[in-house]
Write a structure and sequence with these properties.
The protein is of the alpha/beta class. It folds into 2 domains: about 25-180, Nucleotidyltransferase, domain 5 (2-Layer Sandwich), CATH 3.30.420.10; about 195-240. The chain is built from 8 helices and 5 strands, in the order αββαβααββαααα. β1 and β2 form a beta hairpin.
Length: about 250
């Protein structure tokens, strides 16, 4: 019995990628349970070598939600600026900062959670529930739910991510004017080659995070150089005061 040659399997078309956009579903579910106001909070600036972590908390008005809200990383700078103005005009908003000194003292995670807590506490209206982006809950005066990838899932968190990002970018542009040569206005403090090269040329500013490896290495090099210079200066001064051994009285 002869067999017909087997046909190669038909090529499968790739499944279209489903675009995930944040929704107001979690907030509406809370409202149905009688829980309101509901806030979302997020931060910007964990990774940079310089500048603060900026945290934002937002309570959206269900009747005046700006269109186009999304994870800030998916938006252009121009889109973020437009949405920032609309969020601030239609929602309750608060921001808080964790400066480099706190980041160096507490570590970046604890400093970020502290700033998020401060932002929620600074809201003009006290929320009954807060959604926070990430896996860690924060200390708050109300219930708190951590949502991994929340800036892409929860509309209030997405709004907070935009506020935090725009606020920090504006601040870093101002630092760029105050400290020319570092390029803060371009890279916003991240460890790009231009920034690392400026660190090597100009040294660290008061806005740099000294616990971060590239900045720590530069500060150590400066300290060692200063210590070596001081030691040489002391040695030279001592040599000038003490006559050569051949001139000492016998």
């Amino acid at each position: 019995m002869s067999r017909s040659p087997s046909k190669p399997p038909a090529a499968r078309l790739p499944l279209p990628e489903i675009e995930i956009r944040p929704s107001f579903a979690r907030e509406r579910a809370a409202m149905k349970r009688g829980v309101w106001p509901v806030a979302g909070c997020d931060e910007a600036g964990r990774g940079p070598l310089a500048g603060p972590v900026v945290a934002a908390a937002v309570i959206l008005d269900p009747k005046r939600i700006p269109r186009g809200l999304d994870d800030s990383k998916k938006l252009t700078a121009e889109q973020r600026e437009i949405l920032f103005e609309r969020i601030c005009a239609r929602a309750e908003v608060a921001v808080a900062f964790a400066p480099p000194e706190r980041i160096d003292r507490d570590n970046i995670l604890r400093a970020s959670l502290w700033a998020l807590s401060r932002a929620v506490a600074s809201l003009p209206v006290r929320p009954q529930l807060v959604f926070v982006d990430g896996r860690d809950r924060i200390e708050a005066c109300c219930d708190c739910e951590a949502v991994i990838g929340g800036d892409a899932l929860v509309l209030s968190i997405a709004a907070a991510s935009i506020v935090a990002k725009v606020t920090r970018d504006r601040l870093m542009r101002r630092l760029g004017l105050a400290h020319p040569g570092y390029g803060f206005e371009q890279h916003k403090g991240y460890g790009v080659p231009q920034h690392v090269a400026a660190l090597g040329q100009f040294g660290a500013t008061i806005h740099h995070r000294r616990s971060f490896a590239p900045v720590f290495a530069r500060c150590q090099a400066e300290l060692e150089a200063a210590t070596s210079l001081e030691a040489r200066s002391v040695l030279e001064a001592t040599s000038a005061l003490v006559p050569p051994i051949s001139l000492l009285p016998q």
